From TrEMBL:
It is found in: Cell membrane; Peroxisome membrane. This is Very long-chain fatty acid transport protein. The keyword Transmembrane applies. Residues 92-431 form the AMP-dependent synthetase/ligase domain. Residues 546-621 form the AMP-binding enzyme C-terminal domain. InterPro entries: AMP-bd_C (IPR025110), AMP-bd_C_sf (IPR045851), AMP-binding_CS (IPR020845), AMP-dep_synth/lig_dom (IPR000873), ANL_N_sf (IPR042099). It catalyses: a very long-chain fatty acid + ATP + CoA = a very long-chain fatty acyl-CoA + AMP + diphosphate; tetracosanoate + ATP + CoA = tetracosanoyl-CoA + AMP + diphosphate. Pfam families: AMP-binding, AMP-binding_C. It comes from Anopheles melas. It is an enzyme of class 6 (ligase). Keywords: ATP-binding, Cell membrane, Fatty acid metabolism, Ligase, Lipid metabolism, Lipid transport, Membrane, Nucleotide-binding, Peroxisome, Transmembrane, Transmembrane helix, Transport.
Length: 668
C-alpha cells in the first residue's frame, strides 16, 4: 500500500537519490550529463513517483542514455531505408558496391565474396523469371546449410518470389504440410534431400498442387546413397542451368524484371519450430527482415570487421534472418557450418578468426559439457548472442570461455515483441527503458499461468503486472511501424489466434506471445515459462523452466524436460521430469538431495523418467508433448520411472503403484 511521504522522508530520500545521481553521472563518463541536471530530474520525479521507481530511474540512467543513443541511430537508419522504399536486395546491393571483394560467407574450404553472392543471386533471378515465375509466387527451398543457400532466396526475392525456407529435417506429412501451407508453386531441393521430396511426391502426391521439382546439384557433400539411384529423374539440374547462364553478372540480363517490390512485400516464410503441432509459416517482409538484422547490429554494437560464427540452420530466424542478415545488410562476414558441433565450436571460431558467435536453445550447455581444452580461451570471440542461455549456467559459461558480453534476446519469428540484453545483466532477456515505452509499447498482463487465459478486470480490460509479478508478454500492433507491426502467418486463421483485442482500450490490438515473463524495477525482463507449460500442484504454480534448470545443474548438465501429468481424483497436475541418461550414471540419491535443497515441496517432480534421448527440434528446443502424452503409463513406457516417496527420496515405480494411482487411492 502506498503512503504519503513526510517532508523529512522526502528530504532523506532526495539525499540518497542525489548521491546515486552523482554516481550515475560519473558512470556515464566525463560527466556528460551534469549532476545539476540529474538533481533537477530527481526533484521532478520525486514529486509524484514512488521512491523505488525514482531510485530505479537513477540507477538505470547510464544504461538508458546509452540505449537511447543507439536506438536513435537504429531508427534513423530504418527511417531512411523505409522512406527510400529500400528492399533487402537494394540494401544488399549498396553493401556490394561499397565492398565487392570482401568475403561474405565462409564454409569449410570455400568462400563467397559479396560480388560473388550478387552474381549468383542475379543468375537465380533471371532463371526463374524466364521460367515464368512472377511476383507473389512462392517457391519452397529444402536445402542444408551451404554457401549457395542465401544466394538462392536473395535471387528469388529480386523477382518478388517468396521463398518458403523449409526445415531440412522434415519428412513425410510434416514436410508435405510445410510445402503446401505456403502455396508453393515449385521446390528447390539439394541433392542429399531429394529422397525426401521423392517420398512425398510418390506417396502423398502433394495432393492437388502443381509442383515443379528442381535439384541443386554439384555439391561435394552429396551422400552416396543418392548418387547410386536418382530419386528425381525428371528434376531440372539447377546448378547446370545457372552455370550455363554465365559466370559473371554482366552475362545476366535483368532488365525484363519489373522493379516493383516494396519494403512491405513478403520476402520469405520462416516456420515455427513445431513444438506445439504442425509448423506454421510466419510471414517475413522486407521491412521486418531489415529491422531484425539491423536491430542486432546496432544494439549489440557490431564492428565492420567482425566475423560471426553461425552454426545455426539457415531456415531458422536466428541463423537465416539475424545471422545472414547481418552479412547481407550490414557487411560483416559469417562463417557457416553445416551442422552444429559442440566439440568443434571453439576450433571453428579459431580457424575462421571469429569475433562474434551465435547460439540458440541448449547450444551453450552442450558446449559447456565438453571436456576442458586449451581452445576454450584461445579464440577471439568477445560477444555471443542468441536466446536460450539458462541463467543457471550463465556465470559458469562466461567464466570458463572468457566471453566479455552475452547478448541474450527474446522474441519469436513472427512476433512484434522482441527484447535484447545489451548490458550483460545476468539472466535477463532484455529490458525496456521508461522513456521508450511510448515508442515500443510492450508490457506484461495478468493471466492464468496454467492455462494461459488472459485475466481481465471488472471493466473488461486487461490488467498490467507490477514489478515482480509474472504475466504474459504482449506488444501493441501498429501496422504502420516496422517496430510494432505483426504480419502473422500464411494461415490467416492461425494469425488471428495470436491477436488480443480491446486490451487497454476499445479498438486496440496486441500480439500475444504466449510466454510468461517477469520484470524487475530496473525494467529488466526475465523468461519464466511458456503458457501451457506451467502447471498447478498443491495450490501453487510450477514453472517448468525453473525446475528444469535446477535438475539440469544437479545431474551434470544432462538434457531434462519437466511437464505436468494428470493424477486421477486429484486437483492439478503432478510434476514429471524426463532425464537423458543413456549410460545410467545419474545418482538418484544425489538428485533427490539436490531437489530437496533447491525446490519447494510443491515443485519437486513426483516422477522421474530416465531415457536414452529427449526429442528435440532442430533449433534445440525440447519436445515435451510426446513425453507428456506417455505420462507415467508403464504400458507405454519401457524406460525406468522413479517415484517420489514421503521422505523425499525416489524408488522404482511399479505396476502396483500405477494401479493405485489409476484407482484414485494413492495418497500423494
Amino acid at each position: 500500500m502506498l503512503v504519503e511521504l513526510s517532508v523529512k522522508q522526502k528530504f532523506l530520500t532526495l539525499c540518497g537519490i542525489t548521491a546515486a545521481a552523482m554516481a550515475a553521472s560519473l558512470a556515464i563518463g566525463q560527466r556528460l550529463i551534469p549532476q545539476s541536471i540529474l538533481t533537477g530530474v530527481v526533484f521532478y520525479l520525486i514529486s509524484g513517483e514512488r521512491p523505488s521507481t525514482v531510485y530505479a530511474s537513477i540507477v538505470s540512467l547510464p544504461r538508458d542514455i546509452r540505449t537511447a543513443i543507439i536506438f536513435l541511430k537504429l531508427n534513423l537508419c530504418l527511417y531512411r531505408y523505409e522512406r527510400a522504399g529500400a528492399t533487402v536486395v537494394q540494401i544488399f546491393e549498396r553493401v556490394v558496391a561499397r565492398q565487392p571483394n570482401k568475403v561474405a560467407f565462409l564454409m569449410d574450404d570455400g568462400q563467397l565474396t559479396f560480388a560473388q553472392v550478387k552474381q549468383l543471386a542475379d543468375r537465380v533471378a533471371a532463371h526463374f523469371y524466364a521460367k515464368g515465375f512472377r511476383k507473389g509466387d512462392t517457391i519452397a527451398l529444402l536445402m542444408e546449410t551451404r554457401l549457395e543457400y542465401p544466394c538462392i532466396w536473395l535471387g528469388l526475392s529480386k523477382v518478388g518470389i517468396v521463398t518458403a525456407l523449409i526445415n531440412s529435417n522434415l519428412r513425410k506429412e510434416t514436410l508435405r504440410h510445410s510445402i503446401t501451407v505456403a502455396n508453393s508453386k515449385a521446390i528447390i531441393v539439394s541433392t542429399e534431400l531429394a529422397g525426401a521430396i521423392a517420398e512425398i511426391n510418390e506417396q502423398e502426391g502433394i495432393k492437388g498442387l502443381p509442383v515443379h521439382l528442381f535439384r541443386s546439384d554439384g555439391a561435394p557433400d552429396t551422400d552416396s546413397s543418392s548418387s547410386s539411384s536418382d530419386p528425381l529423374p525428371d528434376a531440372e539440374d539447377l546448378r547446370l542451368s545457372l552455370d550455363s547462364s554465365g559466370s559473371s553478372s554482366s552475362n545476366v540480363d535483368l532488365s525484363a524484371i519489373p522493379n516493383d517490390i516494396s519494403p512491405k512485400d513478403k520476402l520469405v516464410y520462416i516456420y515455427t519450430s513445431g513444438t506445439t503441432g504442425m509448423p506454421k509459416a510466419a510471414v517475413i517482409t522486407n521491412l521486418r527482415y531489415t529491422f531484425m538484422a539491423l536491430g542486432c547490429y546496432y544494439m549489440l554494437s557490431f564492428r565492420d570487421d567482425d566475423i560471426i560464427y553461425n552454426s545455426l540452420p539457415l531456415y531458422h530466424s536466428a541463423g537465416g534472418m539475424i545471422g545472414v542478415g547481418s552479412v547481407l545488410l550490414c557487411g560483416v562476414t559469417a562463417a557457416l557450418r553445416k551442422k552444429f558441433s559442440a566439440s568443434n565450436f571453439w576450433t571453428d571460431c579459431i580457424r575462421y578468426k571469429c569475433t562474434v558467435a551465435q547460439y540458440i536453445g541448449e547450444i551453450c550447455r552442450f558446449v559447456l559439457m565438453t571436456p576442458p581444452k586449451p581452445t576454450d580461451t584461445q579464440h577471439s570471440v568477445r560477444l555471443m548472442f542468441g536466446n536460450g542461455l539458462r541463467p543457471q549456467i550463465w556465470p559458469q559459461f562466461v567464466s570458463r570461455f572468457n566471453i566479455q558480453q552475452i547478448g541474450e534476446f527474446y522474441g519469436s519469428t513472427e512476433g512484434n515483441s522482441n527484447l535484447l540484453n545489451i548490458d550483460n545483466t545476468m539472466g535477463a532477456v532484455g529490458f525496456v527503458p521508461n522513456f521508450a515505452k511510448a515508442i515500443y509499447p510492450v508490457t506484461l498482463i495478468r493471466c492464468d499461468e496454467e492455462t494461459g487465459e488472459i485475466i481481465r478486470g471488472p471493466d473488461g480490460f486487461c490488467i498490467k503486472c507490477k514489478a515482480g509479478e509474472p504475466g504474459v508478454f504482449v506488444g501493441k500492433i501498429n501496422p504502420k511501424k516496422a517496430l510494432n507491426s505483426f504480419v502473422g502467418y500464411a494461415d490467416k486463421a492461425a494469425s488471428e489466434k495470436k491477436v488480443l483485442h480491446d486490451v487497454f482500450r476499445k479498438g486496440d490490438i496486441f500480439f500475444n506471445s504466449g510466454d510468461i515473463l517477469v520484470q524487475d524495477l530496473l525494467g529488466n525482463y526475465y523468461f519464466k515459462d511458456r503458457t501451457g507449460d506451467t502447471f498447478r500442484w498443491r495450490g501453487e504454480n510450477v514453472a517448468t523452466s525453473e525446475v528444469e534448470g535446477v535438475i539440469t545443474t544437479i545431474v551434470g548438465l544432462k538434457d531434462c524436460a519437466v511437464y505436468g501429468v494428470d493424477i486421477p481424483e486429484t486437483e492439478g497436475k503432478a510434476g514429471m521430469a524426463a532425464i537423458v541418461d543413456p549410460e545410467g550414471k545419474v545418482d538418484l540419491e544425489q538428485l533427490a538431495a539436490g531437489i530437496r535443497a533447491s525446490l519447494p515441496a510443491y515443485a519437486r517432480p513426483l516422477f522421474i523418467r530416465v531415457l536414452s534421448e529427449v526429442p528435440m527440434t532442430t533449433t534445440f528446443k525440447l519436445k515435451k508433448r510426446d513425453l507428456q502424452v506417455d505420462g507415467y503409463d508403464l504400458g507405454k513406457i519401457q524406460d525406468p520411472i522413479y517415484f517420489l516417496q514421503s521422505n523425499g527420496t525416489y524408488r522404482r515405480f511399479t505396476v502396483d503403484d500405477h494401479e493405485t494411482i489409476k484407482s484414485g487411492k494413492a495418497r500423494l
